[in-house]
Design brief:
Order of helices and strands: HHHHHHHHHHH
CATH architecture of the largest domain: Orthogonal Bundle
Shape: elongated
Strand content: under 5%
Radius of gyration: 23 Å
Number of strands: 0
Number of helices: 11
Mean pLDDT: 92
Largest sheet: none
CATH topology of the largest domain: Endonuclease III, domain 1
CATH class of the largest domain: Mainly Alpha
Structural class: mainly alpha
Low-confidence stretches: 220-238
Number of domains: 2
Bound molecules: iron/sulfur cluster
Helix content: 40-55%
Oligomer: single chain
CATH superfamily of the largest domain: Hypothetical protein, domain 2
Distance between the termini: 49 Å
Length: 238
């Protein structure tokens, strides 16, 4: 029988509550100490792992402490610190422009609102949502690759565009669970519900997941007596 919207919303709450109970340590994995450092880290994380970003940010912030220093730097200087990351040339250019925009438009402070953040150079809607919700701005349910994949497998959305997926997720969960819901889906996607070979057998929400699009491996058929599978390997074969 087709699941109603209310049933889906109830299931979504159970999934998030269950994940939260199983993984109370879930949090953003980009190291940062200030809103500016968080903004820089999220911008740098496009096409790069959080681990790689965390490897470069300490030296980057030591050399260029704050938006003013970035605004006065040449992109080539920023590049030297981030060249192990994907798209580093573009990111360096954007970070210099970002420092300038913050100085010119916001007095050097990172704006709280998602809309204002999304106006800044190199800051997309997802980055704006992640930063805003972490620094006490707007409530959001930003959609990255993990949230997109899990949202589909858990049948919380039928869409493939981040803004439409976010709208669906927001409609299923109360606002106070959006932040945690985002964190938990990302955390779970990295550790259990991998893009390739999700580990459903050790997933705490397996009972609530339709596993949409997940290929379930069939058990190997039991070999019949005398069949090829039961015969010893021929010489020369291993
Ligand atoms: S049951 Fe499998 S597909 Fe569903 S959330 Fe868990 S790991 Fe992902």
């Amino acid at each position: 029988m087709r699941e109603t919207k209310d049933q889906r919303a109830a299931r979504a709450e159970v999934v998030i509550d269950t994940l939260g109970a199983a993984m109370p340590e879930a949090k953003i994995e980009l190291d940062h100490g200030t809103p500016w450092q968080l903004l820089v880290a999220v911008v740098l994380s496009a096409q790069s792992t959080d681990r790689r970003v965390n490897m470069v940010t300490p030296a980057l912030h030591a050399a260029l402490p704050g938006p003013e220093a970035f605004a006065g730097a040449a992109p080539a200087e920023v590049e030297t610190h981030i060249k192990t990351l994907g798209l580093f040339r573009n990111k360096a250019k954007n970070l210099v422009a970002l420092g300038k925009a913050l100085l010119e438009q916001h007095g050097g402070a990172v704006p709280l609102s998602r809309a204002a953040l999304a106006e800044l150079p190199g800051v997309g809607n997802k980055t704006a949502g992640v930063v805003s919700m972490h620094i006490g701005g707007d409530r959001a349910f930003p959609v990255d690759t993990h949230v997109m994949r899990l949202g589909y497998r858990l049948a919380f959305t039928n869409h493939d565009q981040p803004d439409l997926i976010e709208r669906d997720l927001q409609s299923l969960l109360p606002q106070e669970k959006w932040f945690l819901g985002h964190q938990l889906l990302v955390w779970h996607g990295r550790r259990v519900c991998h893009a390739q070979r999700p580990e459903c057998h050790r997933c705490v929400v397996e009972a609530h997941c339709p596993k949409r699009g997940v290929k379930v491996k069939k058990k190997a058929a039991t070999a019949r007596p005398g069949s090829r599978a039961q015969q010893p390997p021929r010489p020369g074969r291993s």
